[in-house]
Amino acid sequence: MKEIIFKIKKNPELYIGAFISVIMILIIVCGTIFSPYDPNAMSAADKFADPSLAHPLGCDNFGRDLFSRLSIGGATTLFVALVTVIIGVTFGIIIGALTGYFGGAIDEILMRFNDAVLAFPSILLALVFISLFGSGTWKVIISLGIVFVPSFARIVRGEFMRCKYLDYVRSARLMGAGDFRIMFVHILPNTLPVVLSSAVIGFNNAVLAEASMSFLGIGVQPPSSSLGRMLSDAQAFLFSEPGYALLTGITIALIVLGFSLLGDGLKKNA
Amino acid sequence: MKTIIKKIITFIVTVLLVTLFVFIAFELIPGDAATARLGINATPEALMALREEMGLTRPFFIRYFSWLGSFFFGDMGISYSYGVSVRSMLASKLPITLTLTLISFIMVVAISIPIGVFSSKYEDRPGIKIIDVAGQLTMSVPPFFLGIIVTYVFGMLLHLFVPGGFVSYDVDFGKFLSYLFFPAVAIALPKAAMSTKLLKTSILSERKLDYVRTAFSRGNSTMDVMYKHVLKNAIIPVITFLGMTLADIVAGSLVIEQVFSIPGYGRLLISSIANRDYPVVQAIIAIIAMIVIVINLIVDILYQILDPRMREGR
User: Fold this and answer.
1) Domain residue limits at B172
2) Which of A3, A62, A228, B90 has the most CB atoms at less than 10 Å from its CB?
């Protein structure tokens, strides 16, 4: 017991963040799977119903169960963020590994290009791609995925440059390991702590970016629900029904809080 | 001087790359400007003639440089949706977005530096923990939600401003500024929280260094050491962060304008994306990117001036 308390005290961000994130994921997954309501089923009688046993968080302007809507909206947001990060990390690792390990002219050109892309604020860059591709769930995912590649590539590149002159890489080379074996079997596992913490931070940014774009009405499109979209709907009823906007906003804020603490904690450990 | 010239060359390269990127991105869209102007029912001959007239048949790089040249001289094409020049649409909105950005930035600086210094000075007091936790919570509230909270609390409960009651700067400048105050709060608070945290960590790690102990042992007062030695060094990473923040605020104001119904660049950009009014989208994105790059250049040069260690590769 003492040991656990000591561990938590040493890195409170990690444990508090993990706790909030796990709880939010559990609520969202359970709400999506076990909810007795269709999140799109409207009912005029339940318009802005107060919280009750039947509707634990009440209902929205069309009498739809708010808890089911928040769960499915949260699930959409988490899904978009997850796939975005997977795209960003995968391509980031490939580009970062190749440029960091081999260096040379291609590295120079790609990194100049990377700098130029990083000069854009990420939301602006995502807007460029959205205006090219159009909106919709998968288009948002692809746009955000592309936006996230350069920052991951830069982090992975830095790690590869740091590792490639270390002794274990030299000894692997002396034993006759090829470049690709060294890169992906020897160096990559050693970069994972850093990659993992930046992936969590990236996940967090993806949640925020998706919510902002859906809030602006150019992200996930109805009938798919998303937290940003719901918040923008709720804004119209802010004066009469502040609870709708408040609950939606708090859901987003808790997801962001959990993952940002988790990311900070992992960074401390890395 | 040599490093500053180097920075300026990097700056020019970045400007070229970024504008090239924006140009290529909008070249890739199916359907060109001629189709957009004549509609899909135009005859191929009429399309060809207009393309010739608009210079769309010229080689790629010539078109890029002529676009870039006219962009810098303020000719940004004609809006597909409104048929007026993009320049005239953007000119009246620039002061709105710039003022909002500026007020927010001043708030970030005015909030974060005093609180950062204060909370690092009294680091071990229990009250400071509350500031830390409050900062962490503020950072996790998305700006648009913070905007909604600000609207509700200050607009609807306290009646300090009328939500949606934007007054343009050419009508009543005082009312214009007072309307922008609350959106600026929504933009500034999370950024101020981040910059406070950064300044605090920076001061705390700087304070552990040997030169601080030496300064104390020479008999300098705490205030002296803090302001003449520690803060001078600790502020440098914060300046970089503030530069990045200013760029972020420009982008963040796009979202906040939507929350508070401010008719600036953000709302125009969003409606132009929805209407596929590409010349407007292209111009706004290029302008914002330019602003961001110029801010980065200024921060880089400031850096050289503030930190002598950075000069001449020492």
Assistant:
1) 94-310
2) A228
Question: Within 10 Å of residue B51's Cβ, how many Cβ atoms?
Answer: 17
Scan residues 132-191 of B and list those with Cβ closer than 8 Å to A: 136-137, 139-145, 148-149, 151-152, 156, 163
Q: Select the residue of B136, B278, B292 nearest A119 (Cβ to Cβ).
A: B292
> Has residue B212 been placed in a domain?
yes
Q: What angle do CA B298, B262, B67 make, to 5 degrees?
A: 55
In this complex, do B270 and A253 lie within 8 Å of one another by their Cβ atoms?
no
DSSP assigned state of A45: G
Closest chain B residue to A261, measured at CA: B136
B78: β partners: B85
Q: Is residue B77 part of a domain?
A: no
Residue A59: φ, ψ to 5°: -130, 165
Strand partners, A65: A59
What's residue B121's pLDDT?
A: 78
B84 lies in some domain: no
| CA-wise closest residue to B244 among B137, B108, B132, B139 | B108
The answer to whether ipTM exceeds 0.85 is no
Interface contact B144-A231, CB threshold 8 A? yes
Nearest CA in chain B to A117: B18
Going from the C-alpha of A170 to that of each of A99, A137, A177, the distances in angstroms are 18, 46, 10
A177: helix, strand or coil: coil
Helix axes of B2-27 and A104-118: crossing angle, nearest 10 degrees: 80
What six digits make up the tokens of B188? 């500034």
Tell me which residue in A112, A131, A231 faces B281 most closely, judged by beta carbons: A131
On whether both B161 and B256 belong to a single domain, the answer is yes
* CATH number of the domain that residue B116 is part of: 1.10.3720.10
Q: Do B142 and A112 touch (CB under 8 A)?
A: no
Same domain, B129 and B27: no
**Which residue, B264, B262, B209, is CA-closest to B234?**
B209
The alpha carbon dihedral of A94, A99, A105, A110 has a sign of: positive
Residues B42 and B184 in one domain: no
**Is-contact A204 A260, C-beta < 8 A?**
yes
A47: region left, alpha or beta (phi > 0 left; psi from -120 to 50 alpha): beta
| Residue-wise pLDDT tens digits, A161-170 | 888 888 888 8
Q: How many domains would you assign to chain B?
A: 2
pLDDT at A228: 84
DSSP character string of B204-238: HHHHTSHHHHHHHHTT--HHHIIIIIIHHHHHHHH
pLDDT digits (tens, 9 = 90+) for A112-125: 777 777 767 777 78
Residue type, A27: I
What residue ranges define each of the domains in chain A, with the CATH number in brackets?
11-34+68-269 (1.10.3720.10)
Residue B40 lies in a domain: yes
Please tell me the distance from the alpha carbon of residue A95 to that of residue A72, in angstroms, as a whole number. Answer: 34
